[in-house]
Design brief:
11 strands; binds 5'-deoxyadenosine; alpha/beta; seven-stranded parallel beta sheet; globular; 437 residues; Alpha-Beta Plaits; four-stranded antiparallel beta sheet; 3 domains; single chain; TIM Barrel
């Protein structure tokens, strides 16, 4: 066996087959991990099972004995290298420390926390350019030039929580509260479907008015009538609820950790518990959701070391979709006079996340577009590959100001960023860039 191969991955045809196979291997003592399927083997929306090379013989035998080996594919898995990187960077003036980290990336080696911090702290124009260039190359090799476009419907701005940064926190007087009916949600879903969009994100505050029954009704209708992929972003719920929603057809779940520094987490979330948030993320993964997470950049007291820990957490948890956005003060919140997070540091965090987590969806976030008119284009050139269109009806979206002056990322602004960054629209989108620009 090739001594360089440390892991194997199993690719399954369906999610239930993946979960059953994982359960079977675990019950027989094989230590497995679920990871986004590496780009070269399939879509990153799907999940692969990874196990250590030393377990290869045992695992194969178990699958054969169970009669399921035939229907699965097993591949050796090696961390992705970035061939020719140093050659491309040869004209850039970079320090020797920075260069060593780039060499590790070229060779497909894992970065330590200190090395991640070094990248996040790089300040010179040429080092930043080199970092963005490396992340852009990694994105291109793994995902290609197509920008994934998704539609988000913010269906309720009621929230029971009082997160100190958030403009729709419980008690904040600014937004006029609204709740969309299932029928209103469906009208937007049809529009997205007609546009050819494949995945809809249903987002809201933590609003228990939407019982599991109502949410299940919404999910079933979307599935039955459009077959679209569904991402939920509705905050913390019980294991049972997460399970029921998954069984009803929800595919992905976006629950951001916001920061992995427990002290900062507690300061910004007066009525949340760090361990509960972590537990929810683990449940979601266990239930077979493609897991989304993310953080804010520029939180009070946050350092580059904290951001490095966030990135290592995304990697360890094998998060599929990572939303990284600057903190933006929201009127009427305890943090309204705090400083806005830096565009530069946010872009560096996006780039480093691409280099460390590699095969993941990285959105060019609305928050970035809100503080820099070119924010999305810059993010697309620094490792990002996804844009979320805000598809909330006009009469409601003005009240979904989780932060002040939230940019309304719509189809035309998304198409502009795609064109400006020299990228391609997905074939499924029933529109051409010529029509808009
Ligand atoms: N600034 C930036 N991002 C924010 N979010 C919420 N409030 C703010 C803010 N003031 C982000 C959080 C949340 C997502 C829906 O929006 O990351 O998870």
């Amino acid at each position: 066996m090739d001594r360089l191969i440390k892991q194997y991955i199993i690719i399954c045809e369906t999610t239930s087959q993946m979960l059953n196979t994982d359960g079977l291997l675990k019950s027989k003592g094989i230590r497995t991990e679920l990871m986004p399927t590496p780009g070269e083997y399939g879509s990153i929306c799907t999940t692969a099972i990874a196990f250590a090379a030393e377990d290869k013989r045992n695992a194969t035998k178990i699958l054969k004995d169970e009669g399921i080996a035939e229907s699965l594919e097993i591949f050796p898995y090696q961390s992705r290298k970035l061939a020719g990187l140093m050659n491309r960077l040869k004209d850039q003036i970079i320090s020797s420390g920075f260069q060593q980290v780039m060499e590790k990336i070229e060779n497909g080696e894992e970065l330590t926390k200190e090395e991640i911090v070094l990248l996040l702290k790089c300040e010179s124009k040429s080092e930043k350019a080199a970092l963005f260039q490396a992340a852009d190359q990694m994105r291109k090799e793994i995902i290609g030039d197509t920008v994934e476009i998704r539609g988000a419907i913010e269906f309720s701005n009621y929230c029971k929580k009082k997160c100190n940064y958030c403009g729709i926190r419980n008690g904040c007087a600014t937004p006029k509260r609204y709740r969309m009916t299932v029928k209103e949600v469906m009208e937007r879903v049809y529009e997205l479907h007609e546009l050819g969009i494949k995945t809809v994100i249903l987002q809201s505050g933590e609003d228990e008015y939407y019982t599991p029954e109502i949410l299940i009704d919404m999910i079933r209708r979307i599935k039955k009538e459009t077959k679209m992929g569904i991402t939920l972003s509705i905050g913390e719920r019980s294991y049972e609820t997460y399970r029921a929603l998954r069984e009803a057809g929800a595919n992905n779940f976006l629950l951001k950790i916001e920061t992995t520094n427990p002290q900062i987490f507690n300061v910004i979330h007066p009525d949340d518990d760090f361990d509960t948030r972590m537990e929810c993320s683990r449940w979601l993964k266990e239930l077979g959701y493609a897991n989304g997470s993310g953080n804010m950049i520029g939180l009070p007291g946050q350092t580059e070391e904290d951001i490095a820990e966030d990135i290592l957490f995304f990697k360890k948890m094998r998060i599929h979709m990572i939303g990284i956005g600057p903190f933006i003060p929201a009127k009427g919140t305890p943090f309204e006079n705090y400083e806005t997070g830096s565009v530069d540091l946010t872009l560096k965090a996006v780039a480093v996340t691409r280099l460390v987590c590699k095969n993941v969806y990285l959105p060019a976030t609305t928050a970035l577009a809100s503080i820099d008119p070119d924010g999305q284009t810059k993010a697309l050139k620094s490792g990002a590959n996804t844009i979320m269109l805000i598809s909330t009806p006009d009469k409601y979206r003005i009240n979904y100001q989780i932060y002040s002056n939230k940019n309304m990322v719509d189809l035309s602004s998304a198409l502009k960023s795609v064109a400006e960054s020299g990228r391609q629209l997905p074939e499924y989108l029933k529109i051409h860039s010529k029509e808009v620009v």
